[in-house]
Design a protein that fits this description.
By secondary structure, the chain is an alpha+beta fold. The protein has a single domain, classed as TATA-Binding Protein. Helices cover about 30% and strands about 35% of the residues. It has 2 helices and 6 strands. It has a 6-stranded antiparallel β-sheet with strand order 2-3-4-5-1-6, covered by helices on one side. β3 and β4 form a beta hairpin. It starts with a strand and ends with a strand.
């Protein structure tokens, strides 16, 4: 399984994770725990964690084109909730 990771400096990471998980919970399987949100898409899984300095997003999937598409989906949705600081600087790296 392929994986990409991005860490974004923000003081509001946990707020964004909660908002995004609640947003997607209407359509997708979502797990939300203390500082972690997991969203299960049909072809990928996005895991988001946060601390006081930032937000880390890990996307796992079988195919490279799926990962490329999901990077855009996740980052655009996070930017929507982080509109005061958007666009967030996602620097995706293969893991």
């Amino acid at each position: 399984m392929a994986k990409v990771t991005a860490t974004v400096a923000t003081e509001h990471g946990w707020k964004y994770v909660q908002q995004l998980c609640k947003h997607w919970a209407h359509k997708l399987e979502v797990e939300l725990t203390d500082n972690k949100g997991v969203v299960k898409f049909s072809e990928a899984v996005a895991t988001m964690t946060s601390d006081e300095t930032g937000l880390t997003v890990v996307i796992e999937g079988e195919q490279a084109e799926v990962l490329e598409r999901m990077k855009g989906v996740v980052s655009s949705h996070l930017d929507r909730f982080a509109f005061r600081e958007a666009p967030l600087p996602f620097a995706w790296q293969a893991a």
